[in-house]
Amino acid sequence: MSQSVIGIIEKGVGGIYQVNTGDQVIECKARGSFRKEHISPLPGDKVKIAIEKQGLSVIDEILPRKNSIYRPQAANIDALLIVMASDHPTPDMYLLDKLLVLAEIKGIRPIILINKMDLDGGKHLAKVKACYERIGYRVVGISATAEPEKSRETLMNALSDCGTTVLTGQSGVGKSTVVNLILGQEHMLRGDLSAKIQKGKNTTRHAELVMTEAGHYIVDTPGFTNFVNEGVFRYELKNYYPEFEECSHLCKFSDCRHENEPECAVKARVESGEIDQERYQRYLELSQSLKKSKWSE
Ligand SMILES: Nc1nc2c(ncn2[C@@H]2O[C@H](COP(=O)(O)OP(=O)(O)OP(=O)(O)O)[C@@H](O)[C@H]2O)c(=O)[nH]1
Ligand SMILES: [Mg+2]
Ligand SMILES: [Zn+2]
Predict the structure, then answer these.
(1) What is the distance in A from the centroid of ligand 3 to the CA of 15?
(2) Which residue has the higher pLDDT, 224 or 137?
(3) Model pTM greater than 0.90?
(4) To pair with 101 at 20 to 30 A between CA atoms, which of 2, 257, 271, 275?
């Protein structure tokens, strides 16, 4: 007889899943029929497993998911920590807006983290705050390497009420530095070691949940260049901009896309400066790019 328990998948590589049941981490394989049903367990999934005394334990059931994302592949995400550098690399505001849309679609709370403040004395942070705090987003600034202690404290505060948090953003902005700062020296050493072992292997799609001191999970993601617009249709893109939602009921047409329509309240606010012009321009650009994609309706 096997014993049945509930746990959370922390990692899955090559069909072997590490499931944390609260008092131990158990290696499991997935029940054979998942494949036929085109379901694959993801890190972050809450699962029911059958513990086997001999051989691998088995994931029998995946409990309902709150959400799931594609890059990294993970489920039940509470917060998306969107990391940007003040400089090096040059901030990609278009990517920031796309990631905010992704968070809105998936029902994940976004937090914008500006790192490397030591490089510009906080100028970029001030610019991002001016645009994004006004529309309801949380923006925090740190210098992970220049002021590690202060930065750690800021991060701990920002993440104190977040459950599972995924870090995302361009390559080189400091995501892994931030993860190491949160987790401390021990993880860093382990991380370096496994990075050496993994060298040459493609590990980008394998998310790993790592538990913090506070008992939350944190997930690092290697930087990426091509972004996947997950499930956003062009006609609904506008719904994911909080500043548009505030006034879209004043547009002449109820299905106004705020592009070329007459008597558009959003455009009026862009002209008066109440809505950030540059972010609006990026919205138009994103809408155009969706026209060419499979999400073109
Ligand atoms: N000046 C400065 N450099 C920093 C800061 N934080 C991180 N860095 C440096 O930025 C570089 C990139 O940091 P990583 O943590 O590897 O960046 P990443 O986002 O994980 O990059 P990918 O894994 O490629 O996506 C490293 O050389 C860090 O030492 C900071 O606050 N200030
Ligand atoms: Mg990294
Ligand atoms: Zn409009």
Answers:
(1) 48
(2) 137
(3) yes
(4) 271
